[in-house]
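FIELD: query
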Amino acid sequence: MEKEIGKNVSSGAKKVKRVQEEKKEPAKKKTTAKKASETAVKREHAAADERVKAAKARAEKKEEKIDKKTALKQAKIEKKAAIKQKKLEKKAAIREKKLARKEMIAKKKAERLEKRNEKKAALKEKRVEKRAERAARRELLRNESKAEKAQRIAREKKEKIALKRKKQEAHAKAQEDRRKAREAAHVRRAEERKHKREQKTERKRSGGFGGWLAAVISLGVACLALATVVTAGAFRMNEMQVAGENNARATLYEMVSASEELDDSLSKLRVSSGANEQRLLLTNILVDTALMESSLEKIPVDQATSTDISAFVNKTNAYARTLLSKLARGGSLSETERSTVSYLYEVNDKLYTELNDLMTHMENGDLRSFVGGKQGTVSEKFGELGNETKAEPEEIVDAPFAGEGNVGENRLAKLQKITSSEAEEKVRQLFTPYHVRDVQFTGETQTAEVSCYNFTLTDENDVEIFAEITQNGGKLAFFDTYEECSTKNFDLETCDAIAREYLRSIGIEDVEAVWLSDAGMVANLTYTAVEDGVRIYPQTIRIRVCEEKGRVVGMDARGYLLNNEDRDLEAGLSKAEALKQLTRGLEPYGANLALIPVDGQEVLCWEFACKYADGEYIVYLDARTGDEVQLFRVMQSAQGSYLR
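FIELD: result
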């Protein structure tokens, strides 16, 4: 029982315990549920926090991305702005550079203009000074007596000779200095070689053999010194001869070079049509002829040869000055002047060819003989060159038979010969109306037909006149100049009267004008002698008259002087009979008896001026047989009429 009560108590206690535990279990469950709920809440809060953090992270990342894009965009904007600013700065720099360059150009231009004005002022002042000097010199020359003139010429000649001697002495001194320098250098090198040998000998010297070697070397040095002295003496003996040959060779080369340049200029001038190019070529011709004349003075040729070549060179120089003055005053070259240029070219071309051939094939022995004044290959060649320069020009004929020269007997050869001094007095008298202030004798012209003294005259206006006076009889054969003729104040008829009056003043009458031509502002007139109504064409005179001033500026009377003689002038055919011999279709509008040159003989002819279609012709029929002897075609050009 007790055990059962005890067991019951025990089971009751367990029950109570169980009940208590059961009562505690809901509370425990409740507590557990509460804890679980709290845990869930915490987890929810944690998840929410995580979501918030993630959202914040996403927001921050998005913000960062936006900031990055904004930064990139801003960087691009700044870069574009920087590039634009750089371009603007570059443009501004270029603009400033251009402005600076413009300013510099303007400054340089102003400086050049100032320099040019200063130069012009200096040149003007120099011209004024020169003009004053020339005026003073003209006044001095005008008032000086013959004795004073002779003293002045002698003084100027002495000054030229002194200047030339001074140059020669300076050249000789320079040569002597070079020779002494060469000798000193030679002696110095010999001493140096001697010293080196002595040093070498000292190093190698030993015992008795060394003494013998020193003696041998001393003897060798003495022999070398003696040989040096002998050689130097031989050099000095040959040096002057070699120097003379070298100078002559150099002078010949200079003459060949000048002749070559002259050949080139004359060749171009023949075909040139531009005034500027013609002026340049004529200036070159003046320089080249001056160089040739200077070279010719240094060459030891005989007087005749020197005179012949010098006359050609001086004539070329004077003609170039005349043409240059004409171009400077607005003129142009006529057909006759171009023909004269061609003639000068042909003569100089032969001269240059022969000189070049001479220099190419000349031997040292020939040159040595030439320098020594002996006859040889070089002297003979120069004699031939002198003869070739005497050739006469073949001009375009601007009048019937103009320039034919001597036909038959030379009448000038029978007249008394005068001296150059008498010729100078004659030329002064003939050109008194031209107010000549200076006359220079420039040489002689020698041809098979006529020999003349050449003179260059200068009038009060510094215009140069080239004149030739015959050695036989002292007649004015030729003169040429150029007056400034820019206005036509005189017609051909008046110029004809002026030319006739001039011819009467020099003793020529009974002439008839057969050809009148108006070349620019200068009238070209051709006259022939007339005997019993017959025109004597071998006796032709050509005159040039300035149509502005009404003054004769040129004349060629060589044909008239050479062929002045009495003749038989009987015609076999009448005018009517001669007319029947003309070619059908020719319409004559003028007829005259004329004596013409044919193959060196004079033939009496009927001269007919005819028209045919649109052309004009001049026909010459033999006055005895009626045969056609000569026929000319009348051509027209800008410079006037001429015949072909």
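FIELD: remark
DSSP finds twelve helices and 13 strands in the chain.
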